[in-house]
Every structure is written in structure tokens, then in C-alpha cells.
Request: fold
Amino acid sequence: MKTILVVEDDRLLARLVELNLTAEGYNVVVYNEGINALAYLQTHRPNLVLLDLMLPTVSGWDFLAFTQQDENLSRIPVLAITALARPDEQARTLAAGAVACLVKPFGIHQLFATVDRLLVSIDDE
Amino acid sequence: MGDRDRIALHIENLCKSYAGANALNGVTLSLRQGEVHVLLGVDGSGKSTLVKILSGVERPDFGLISIGSSPVNVSSPRVAARLGIGVVHHESSLVPSMSVIDNILLNYLSGKRRWGFPVIDWIGLHKTIQEVLDLMEVKIDLQQRAKDLTLAQQQVVKIAKALCIKPSILLLDEPTRGLTEIDVSQLFRVISTLIRRGTSVLYVSSRPDEIPHVADRVSVIKEGKILGTMPADETNLRSVVEMLVAETSQVMALREADRLRREFVSLVSHELRTPLAIIRGYAETVMSRPWSEEIRKECLEAITSGCDRLTELVDNLLDISSLEKGILRIEQEPLWLPDLAERLVKAKQRKIQRGTLTTVNFPLDFPVVYADPKRIEQVLHNLIDNAVKYSLQGSTIMVSGVVDKEYGGVVITVEDEGMGIPPEHLTRVFERFYRVPNHERAGIEGSGLGLPICKGIIESHGGRIWAKSTPGRGSAFSFSLPLALELVENGSIK
Reply:
């Protein structure tokens, strides 16, 4: 079973993603704080990270900066969940190391499609 | 009183706007008799507008023009000429194919008329022109065509045109534009000759380097306002240039307001997206599978919660707009703050995700205040939410209340052990749309509306709101509310 790490401080959004991805057959691990998620990554290797950029204390950008430095962690694809909808903002997110952006308000089918696409592309490698 | 102290021209609070944009924004300026007064400003500062108004080409929206000590109405260029105001506009030019004398005549023709026809006093005219040219010590063939003249000669002819009406006040709008250095020194000689004859010159320029050569005094104009007037000696040149390049505080404030407004639009759109994502996501979820009754209920509750968040944002926007218009309604009734604080803290405690503890510390004999319970709850709610938002896991948030006898009111404080606010931003957090540009905060959502609304509410109650903070150690937000007068008088406060 594939594991997806969800880093999202908004409990309702985190639960939304957890509910749906679990129903799709994924193992979902949720953290509300970036720092705890980074701690989790010290001992675990999820197949995909869903990362909210607007996080308190350790922001999504900080999270990316940290994982991109680490040779092993940088291999885990990160899907950014963001309210930043402008093309330049999305370009910045991708430049920071995310492989794709999911812009709020996203539909659940969009969520499934993006997650599937990212996991399939890993399988291909 | 010497001639030089006599005021030839005085302008008071002159205003002019074009299509809503202020070209002149209350210009006040005096031109002494026999002085060269440089009006220095960059393009678009309003100096040409001023020249146009003084020469009767444009009418001011507001303000007073006086010549000598009597107010005048410069309603047209002809009136200006009759009042003794001669003008050399920088954009006007001579008719190239016409001779010098004919060019000068063009100006003269607009003078006396008899039975509707211009009357030309040929003898007088030739005498005047000769006088003017002698005065300027220039040799120009009057029959030469204008297009064959050098730029400096053309400028001299333009001045000669203006001088034919024998003005006591001469307005020169950027007279050196396009002239060579030699031409410029010739022009300056002409100006000093005119000054010796008692003419007063308002010399409009965008070049500070000309000031030492020509000016007695200099005024700096910027964005339609005179920033200052000073004697034109070398020592002042530096401050003149500084004035010219520095942004006025008003302009800076406007720019900042504009920036905050633009930022606000993007902040609000971010703020809208999270509750929208919740509503859309849960609505789609509920329809996507045959969920258990429990999960269906959870989804519907989440949708309601998303709607509540949207409502709160919309309410905040309405509050800000009411505060701006000064129509925020305050309904005052007796209010015992410890109750309110307790209730809020209990409700919040349940929702706090990151283990932050909240305690209440009110004296038992806390007095009753007259205030709008809903509005004060909104303020406390906001301050506590902020404290939670900017706190670290496990830290304490304390809501407390004290009676300030000296002030005659109560002070409520919400204190956190969060990241704190740097002092340079502390006073600005109550400004509309302002958010502390801090790296640590980059991840925290907010519209920059909460604190300005709190400030508006508290001030509408006659109270005050303020903040103290130590970066890295925490912040304390306090507000005061005045006590009802009878409570103070009958000594219910110990």
C-alpha cells in the first residue's frame, strides 16, 4: 500500500484529503505542523507528500528547502496545496522543489487525478 | 521699504485639477519687485500649469492672484497683458516663414482695436521694438525670417514679443530649453538688464544648476505644491536639490496605501480560497461514495464550518467598510467582562489544536462597563485568535483584566508567549491591511483586517487599544474601556 504524507494545518482540509485518499486505498499520515512532519521523515519514506504552503512556524517553503537539501528526501515528490493562484506564484512553488501545485479550491477528482499521475510517474522510473 | 521688498505678484492657495488629477494643490508664492524668482520643479510638477494660469490661458479652480496689493482676475491672455504680465511659453514658437518684425507684430495685434479692427500704431511700435532690442543689446535684423535665426535669437525675439507690452512682470517658462551655453549666458545678460529696469521675473526651470547664475530666490514645486522658498545662494543649492528629489511624505503615504490595497486584494483572495476548498471538497466527497451516516454528517458539518468562515470574512469586510464610512453601530448595555472572557476562553480552549493553554485572571470585584457585548466579544475573539495563531506549541495565552483608577476604566489584556512583533512594526499592526512582513509569519494566513477592526470598535467605545511585544518572547495586546460615569462617582471602584 502506498503511503501519502499530508502536511496541512487546517484540520478540515487535512481531514478532507485523508478521508478521500484513504477511501481510494492509500495509507494516509497527517501532520498539522511542518516540524512534526519533518521529524516523521527522519524515519519514514512516504511515496508522496501533500504539502500546504501556508503553515505556521515551519512554512511549506521552509519544508521544501529542508527536504531539497537531503539527497534521499528530495526524491519524494511533493504536491503543493496552495491558495497562490497566480502563474508567477506557482512558478516560484515549482522552483522551490514541488513537482506540482493543487490550487484551492480544488475538486476531489482533481486531487485523485493529480495524486495518481504523480504516483504512476514514480512507478515508471 | 525698498523696491526690492515690494511684492509685485502674490499667489495664494492656487488650485487646479484636470480630470480629477491635481496639477496645482494650493500653491502660495510671492514675487518681489525687481527679483528673479526661480520656480524649480521636474516635469509634471505643476509649474507650466501655474504659468498658464498667470498668463490667462487657463483658469484656476480656486485661489487668489494679486498684483501689487490688489486681487486680479486673469481671465484671458489679453487681460494678463493689460495687467502687465508678459509671458514666454516654452512650447510656443515663432512662425518660421514670417519675419522677426511680423512675429512681434502678431502679439501686438491682439492689443487695441477700433470698430473691431486692430489699430496699429506703427510709429509707437517701431519705437517700442527698437527700445526692447536696445535693451537686450542684441543685433537682430528685423526683416530676417524667423526660421533663419539661431535658437538663442529666437528666444530673444520671443522675449522681445513679450516685452512689447511693457510688462512689469515677466514669466519665463523654461527659457533655456534647447539653448547652447553661449546662448544661455546671453539670455542671462538680458534678464539682468530687465531686472535693473525694475521688471520682476518669475523664471520657471527644471535645472537646479541655473539657479546660482540667475536667481535671487528659489521656490521648489513638487506635485502641485510649493515645498519651500529660500534665497538662491550656493549654500542652499544642496537643500534645493534634496527637496527636488525627495518624495513628499504625502506621496509616500499614498504609495504605501496603494501598495497595501493591492496586497489586500490578493490576501483576501487567499483567505477566500481555503473555506471554498473546504465547501467544494466536502460537497463533492459526500456525493462521491456511499459513505456511512457518520461520515456524511461530518462532511455536512465541515461545509457549514466553511460557510461560517466565509461569513466571518465577509462580515469583517463589511465592518472595515463601515468603520471607513464612520457608520459602525455600537449598542451599549451593561457588560461584565469576566463572564464574557470566561465563556470565550472555554469555547476557544476546545478548538485550540496546538495544545496552547488559556487562563483567565480577573479580580472578583471587576466593575460593569457599558459596551456592545457582541462587538467586545468580536475584539476579544480576534485578539485570542491572533495569540493562538502566532503562538508556539505548548505555550500559554493569558486573558486578564484590571481596573485602572487613574484612567477611570478597565484594561483587558491578551498575552501570549509567541514569536512577538519587531518594534518597527508594532505601531503599524493596527493599520488597515498591514501585515508584519516576517519570514516566520510567511505561512500564517490573515487578511490584515482583524486588528484595524478591533481598533475601530474600541475607539467607538471611547477606549484605546495598544500592543507591547518582545520578539521571540511574546506579545500583549490591551484595550481599555471607560467606566460608566455613575460607577466612578458613587465609588463602586475601590
